[in-house]
Amino acid sequence: MRLRLPSLSRRQMISGAVVVVLVAGLVGWAAAPKPKSFRTLDQLVTVHTGPDDSAAVTLDTTLYLPKSAGAGHPVPAILLAHGFGGTKQSVRSDAELFAEQGYAVLAWTAQGFGRSTGEIHVDSPDWEVKDAQRLVDWLAARDDIRKDGADPRVAAVGGSYGGALSLLLAAQDPRIDAIVPMITWNDLVNVFLPGGVFKKQWAGQFFGASDNPDNPQCGRFAADICRVYLNIATTGKATPAAEALLRKSSPSQVLDKIKAPTLLIQGQVDTLFPLSEGDANARGIAANGTPVRVAWFTGGHDGGTGPQSEVDRLRLLTGQWLDHYLKGNGKAPENSFTYSRVSGLNAQGRGLVTAASKTDTYPGLRGDGTSVDLRGPAQQIANPPDGNPAAISSLPIAGLSSLLGASGADVSQEIPGQHADFYSAPLPASVDATGAPVVRLRAASPTGEATLFVKLYDVPAKGAPSIPDGLIAPLHLTGLPKDIADAHPITVTLPAVVHRFEAGSRVRVTIATADTAYWSPAEPEVYSVAVDGAITLPAVAGTPIANPDVIWRYVLAGLVAAIALALLVVLLIARRRSRRIDRSIDADLVDTPLVVRGLRKEYKNFVAVSKVDFTVNRGQVVGLLGPNGAGKTTSLRVLMGLTRPTSGEILVFGHRLLPGSPVLSRVGALVEGPGFLPHLTGAQNLELYWRATGRPEADAHFEEAYDIAGLGSAVHRRVSTYSHGMKQRLAIAQAMLGLPELLVLDEPTDGLDPPQIAEMRKVLRRYATGGRAVLVSSHLLAEVEQTCTDVVVMHRGEVVAAGPVADIVGDSPTVQLDVSDVAEAEKVLRDLVGVSSVAAADGHQSSLVVNVDGTPRAEVVAALVRAGVGIDRVMPRRRLEDAFLSLVGGDTKASGERP
């Protein structure tokens, strides 16, 4: 049967052309680069700074100025500060976005970084904050900046290092009209010594961001900051003087002086500056009556910016805040609270989708919630010498996180003997935790002191346990009894999270003695720990909110309308075409897995497959062979419905193959290479794939699939950490889910090492038993010869041979002789008329491979016997490779033909 597109009338062709032109025009209009509505001015600005203004520091700046700005049309300004280790280029995209919205944006590189001079004082009010004040002076002197009297209308915006700067600047300079600090700190002492325990890895990452060949130990840090770090990193403790210096750069000391309306944005996936830091800032500023809006999002120092829906929401909130407080547009934004939760997977496989919620007022970290009982006896746990080995709760070192293909909060590993676990019963219903969980514990130590790490785990019914966002609570406890029976309960507030515990999951509280992210006591010791009663998971009664509208969505709406019109035309054509398709079933072939008849696939100026016929029966492992360009992959793509044939037909169990045909549920395939969601584990990918089929979970045979994959515990790791070979094995397991009756594999051994290839050979042979069948395409002829029962050889788009492997190999002009004297045998055979070649057999010291070229084998044997050479064995020698090369004429780079 030939399948061809129906001929189109002149009217249809004209209508289709109009639709194409309309869609192309809209796409071109949307995608065409727009002229910038702003100009930039790069300038090195020298400021006088320091405690007595005696130091001169040069700052590398860029001013983004709307083209409409001028003396007759002054515009409000934004001071845009970068994060630690960055430069003014780090915030370029945000600066351009604000400039497009009509703001003058001044971005600069903080002193101690990039081309700016000076040293790093970590947002000191005497240095970096004063630098920013001088930049406000610089803006005030420009006639194109909007002013209230002599004061410029200006906001301070920044993330992390820049976020703290905006807070400290607003406290120090009353000219600041609004601030938007993001993912930043409240108190550096609490940040780097939470619970009295030094956060060594993040501190090292923070301190290591500065490079200075002239001072390799301190980099470009100021001497006092360097001394503080080196002392704390060595002892694990901060002196009162060190704490005083850190608090000098902490907004916690000046929150009562901030009068600028504040939009606080804090990340939920942040082991450096957790939600508690933003909470402290919000409460301190609001206590003065200053307007404060709080927004949490599913990102942070460990989680990045989050999905696009999060970026849109935060941009909308920021735009509303600045438009009102700088431009005077609209009513005053509410002092509300918004947060978000991961709600599912992006339909395009591009990460996660979030759902945002809102409350009218900020509830803080503690509140009413669900009390979950915990079970488990008091337990003893060991503190290892010098804190090594240590558990892993997160990977705050960005380079290591990216190397492993995971965010810093996506990993956890406990050390046996060094932790105690306390479990809840399976949850009868899902629980949404929004805020800081609270648990009570008891501890005892022979020394009266203990450093402990308290962790909240989500233990799903299926899958690996995980620490929500990698957040843990370090504790340094003193005054402890030696016996746990004498210990008094201690209330522990865990880091705030936004996390859903699904029904059937268990809550686990783990108490560990050492963690790679933190300093630990050097002396080995054994502690006793217990958990009292329950853990409280706080909740927030938020109202769901829609994702913010952005300009490009209106463009997309127009495109969607145009595409819908085009689809209508296509559907009408497809409906007309579908009436011509033969949907009958061949009753004689309902038990035959696959029949291919007269298959042909043409492209515009190219014939990929000209004529293919073959059959795959139950119990067979059929190898599809051919040189590059022979048409193997094209045939498989047609077979799986990924492309339509030009003519011919494919029958699967007697059903003519059509896209979406129900009979495809009886077929498993690996064609086009493995494709998985990298942020999910191997097991989660397989489960998600199976759910998409709509078939019962019991029919999936997951355990058999995991066994086939042979990944062991790695099946519960994120796929982004897999090697190519591991992904290939997982893809084969996915193809075998449900134990389909026909399995189609394209290059299944790609990326596998020799032992894995040998194991795959056994898997395929076993799979074809019990009435199933396998069709496998491979370029490894030796593997096909050892694995397959039958082969189909393609060349230049046609089948040139098909049948059992033994029949294709056929009689051999070459024999292998096992002889007693190799040297003498070789001499005799070279002198024998008709023998064309003699060579040593690979891996056999006493064997020769002889091309007799038609000479009877009996004559060859007789000649050796006459010469006194003993013969142990004579056997034909011909490999599938020999047969393959004879069939394709040595052409291993076949190409398609022109139609």
UniProtKB/TrEMBL annotation:
Q: Which InterPro entries match?
A: AAA+_ATPase, AB_hydrolase_1, AB_hydrolase_fold, ABC_transporter-like_ATP-bd, ABC_transporter-like_CS, Galactose-bd-like_sf, P-loop_NTPase, TAT_signal
Q: Could you tell me the keywords of this UniProt record?
A: ATP-binding, Hydrolase, Membrane, Nucleotide-binding, Transmembrane, Transmembrane helix, Transport
Q: Which GO molecular function terms does the record list?
A: hydrolase activity
What Gene3D superfamilies does the record point to? alpha/beta hydrolase (3.40.50.1820), Galactose-binding domain-like (2.60.120.260), P-loop containing nucleotide triphosphate hydrolases (3.40.50.300)
Q: Does the keyword Nucleotide-binding apply?
A: yes
Query: Membrane-crossing residues?
Result: 551-574
> One Pfam family of this protein, by short name?
PepX_C
PROSITE patterns for the chain = ABC_TRANSPORTER_1, ABC_TRANSPORTER_2, TAT
What domain of life?
A: Bacteria
Domain ABC transporter, first and last residues per copy: 594-821
- What SMART domains is this protein classified in? AAA, PepX_C
Which family does the record assign?
A: Belongs to the ABC transporter superfamily.
PANTHER family (UniProt xref): ABC TRANSPORTER, ATP-BINDING PROTEIN (PTHR43335)
Protein name as catalogued: CocE/NonD family hydrolase
